[in-house]
């Protein structure tokens, strides 16, 4: 009999979580996908239902849960500013109470646990590119704080459970990731620009477009998460996972317009508060400890993401639901 690892993925019906569930099932693992469907959808995992080794659990991580698993990927948390600012108190609860519950679960089971942390722990960074040693430059009371500080506190909890209870932990600091199944209305820059271009609407650049981001394609990112989970026990992280090629937001807009091949007008909108000026991961650690680096160039990743949104927009009634 093949003994499958039982793997819990919280936030498994979300953008990254659904791709992760798919990869784990393909590796022959038994996947428990836990989600409260705040930003995730059943559509994201519909194609996995029916696989006997895929289980779905509707649950909110801020409440305790008793399960039997070997590994936990803790991804549950709204990730885009529009969604995490919708109910900021719930966002902090999800990060902090969610981490406590998942760490408690891991402690009882002696299970290895991975936290999906974020480049937002660096805030508006004064060090560029960002290395893991940098402690960050974060506003504790701003509009992004529920997410940034919630994720920072979750990291603290992971390291305290590691030191205090000898838990095997893995902390990934994920940088901007994009690809098929991004939520079309979460206001993130890649989905916004693609949908605007496909609908022939003007592209909305916030501020002057000189701020930078580095965009990682979803398959690369998920590969990094799995490698980190599989790494030697002494590799705890935090470890940056992201694409080190940096673009200005204006360059991204131009690239999307060129790839979509229609539209083309650009309009300016006000820059949201606490919007980081620049962001690029230093991935030396991921390269040396995990043998990982992204393989998909932005232009190629954009093509498959554009194809995904093009299909979505061809579904009856879908255009009216787009709030870009
Ligand atoms: P997403 O919003 O698509 O996925 C998050 C999932 O968590 C959703 O399915 C949502 O319904 C679920 N969820 C939210 N609150 C929950 C709760 N209380 N209980 C149970 N489930 C809950 O976002 P994503 O982009 O897939 O992000 C996944 C994780 O990766 C998040 O923790 C996010 O902070 C982190 N991350 C993502 C990015 C990125 O660029 N996508 C960057 C940095 C970090
Ligand atoms: N917890 C859980 N599932 C478990 C074990 C624990 O949800 O299988 C929750 C539990 O409710 C607790 C939290 O995880 O609030 C932290 O657990 P821990 O054992 O660290 O702390 P304690 O139970 O001592 O508060
Ligand atoms: N942005 C933009 N137009 C949009 C959406 C976002 O110019 O329609 C900008 C935003 O101000 C930020 C960058 O793009 O500077 C990335 O935004 P996103 O919300 O995708 O991610 P984050 O700010 O969390 O990195």
Anisotropy-based shape: globular
Give the percentage of residues in beta strands.
15-25%
N→C terminal distance: 51 Å
How many alpha or pi helices?
9
- Strand order in the largest sheet: 3-2-1-4-5-6-11
Low-pLDDT runs of 5+ residues are none
The largest sheet, given as strand count, sense and whether it forms a barrel, is: 7 strands, parallel
Helix fraction by DSSP (H/I, runs of at least 4): 25-40%
What is the residue-averaged pLDDT? Answer: 96
CATH architecture verdict of the domain at 6-177 and 217-241? 3-Layer(aba) Sandwich
- Kindly provide the radius of gyration, computed on alpha-carbon positions and rounded to a whole number of angstroms: 19 Å
The helix-strand sequence is EHEEEHHEHEEHEEEHEEHEHH
Number of strands: 13
């Amino acid at each position: 009999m093949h003994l499958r690892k039982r793997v819990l993925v919280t936030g498994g019906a979300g953008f990254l979580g659904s791709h992760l569930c798919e990869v784990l099932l393909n590796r022959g693992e038994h996947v428990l996908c836990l989600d409260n469907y705040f930003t995730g959808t059943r559509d994201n995992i519909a194609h996995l239902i029916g696989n006997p080794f895929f289980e779905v659990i509707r649950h909110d991580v801020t409440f305790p849960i008793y399960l039997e698993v070997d590994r936990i990927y803790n991804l549950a948390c709204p990730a885009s500013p529009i969604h995490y600012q919708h109910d900021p108190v719930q966002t902090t609860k999800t990060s902090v109470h969610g981490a406590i519950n998942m760490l408690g679960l891991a402690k009882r089971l002696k299970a290895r646990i991975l936290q999906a942390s974020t480049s937002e722990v660096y805030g508006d960074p004064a060090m560029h590119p960002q290395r893991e040693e940098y402690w960050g430059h974060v506003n504790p009371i701003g509009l992004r704080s529920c997410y940034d500080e919630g994720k920072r506190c979750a990291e603290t909890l992971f390291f305290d459970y590691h030191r205090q209870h000898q838990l095997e932990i893995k902390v990934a600091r994920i940088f901007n990731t994009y690809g098929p199944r991004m939520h079309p209305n979460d206001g993130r820059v890649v989905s916004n620009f693609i949908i605007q271009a496909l609908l022939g609407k003007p592209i909305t650049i916030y501020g002057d477009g000189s701020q930078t981001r580095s965009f990682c394609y979803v398959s690369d990112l998920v590969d990094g998460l799995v490698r980190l989970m599989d790494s030697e026990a002494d590799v705890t992280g935090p470890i940056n996972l992201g694409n080190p090629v940096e673009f200005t937001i204006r360059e991204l807009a131009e690239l999307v317009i060129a790839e979509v091949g229609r539209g083309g007008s650009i309009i300016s909108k006000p820059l949201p508060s606490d919007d980081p000026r620049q962001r690029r991961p230093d991935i030396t650690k991921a390269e040396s400890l995990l043998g990982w680096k992204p393989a998909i160039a932005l232009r190629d990743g954009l093509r498959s993401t554009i194809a995904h949104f093009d299909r979505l927009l061809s579904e009856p009634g879908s255009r009216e639901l787009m709030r870009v």
